[in-house]
Amino acid sequence: MAKAPEQEHPVKAFGWAARDTSGHLSPFNFSRRSTGDEDVRFKVLYCGICHTDLHNIKNEWGISLYPMVPGHEIVGEVTEVGSKVSKVKEGDKVGVGCMVGACHACESCNSNLENYCPKMILTYGSIYADRTVTYGGYSDTMVANERYIVRFPENLPLDAGAPLLCAGITVYSPLKYFGLAEPGKHVGIVGLGGLGHVGVKFAKAFGAKVTVISTSPSKKDEALKQLGADSFLVSRDPQQMQAAIGTLDGIIDTVSAAHPIVPLLGLLKPHGKLILVGVPEKPLDLHVFPLIMGRKSVAGSGIGGMKETQEMIDFAAKHNITADVEVISMDYVNTAMERLAKNDVRYRFVIDVGNTLAASKD
């Protein structure tokens, strides 16, 4: 018989968990493993709320394990390190993103692409090497192998930096891999949410020209004035879309709702790439002719390896790139999820775990 969550490991932990597909989160006592030789333990100070958390707590992808403690944009302060840890020391500021394990032997792992390892272990809702369930950052403490620990530079604020561990790397990696992180490239960003707004910031920092593509005309001022985009396209306006045909080198599509992608292909130059990083629940309607006429590509990209994630965080610190966040208390999390479902956030909720989780424990 499987052990109860509070019995599996010796270190007591406290967080908020979803128990079923209602997705309702409530206080939850569980446990974490003791600090191994290569492990880093840290006190969680902030944790971003990713759209993935919303999908998972409601089991919208059909893979959820309950009880579930979500959260994979986790930052905090190191409280203990194992005897073989060399990367960080007690008191350092660190983070953990979307994964906490992989096989470390396959071609992907050997290429610093643990995110594409077939045995990659997710930060929460996954089965760890010791056969216990992984729990995420809506909790007071976190422990992970040092390979999956990201060092946070001193000048990067923890609250506004936390979402970069998922949202940031999710847009940074494809910009780099697909050759769009170069001065003079013209990049389209579809969707101005948690991913899209940091996508604009990274693309601009790389020296690219950026066009934001959105269904919401109301976001034009934010895109141009606050985030520094060069132009704005309303995707539902046929005249605007027609005028922009063949102008973009690549497009990062961050939208996780079902939406037409054929019009986006028309915006690409020959050899242009449409890179999908959002995950709609329903299959996309893709016609082949627009791909053939211009040798265009539709591709996908998922987060990044640990080496690239550290590179991204260091780049963000150097260029003062942070997420635009609304910091909330732990007991506001269910309301935040309701607002996130309606896209009522500019642009990322971040839970002030360090200051508000203990209060809800009593």
Automatic annotation (TrEMBL):
Belongs to the zinc-containing alcohol dehydrogenase family. InterPro entries: ADH-like_C, ADH-like_N, ADH_Zn_CS, CAD-like, ER, GroES-like_sf, NAD(P)-bd_dom_sf. This is Enoyl reductase (ER) domain-containing protein. Pfam families: ADH_N, ADH_zinc_N. Keywords: Metal-binding, Oxidoreductase, Zinc. Residues 23-351 form the Enoyl reductase (ER) domain. GO terms for biological process: lignin biosynthetic process. It comes from Malus domestica. It comes from the Eukaryota. Its cofactor is Zn(2+). GO terms for molecular function: oxidoreductase activity, acting on the CH-OH group of donors, NAD or NADP as acceptor; zinc ion binding.
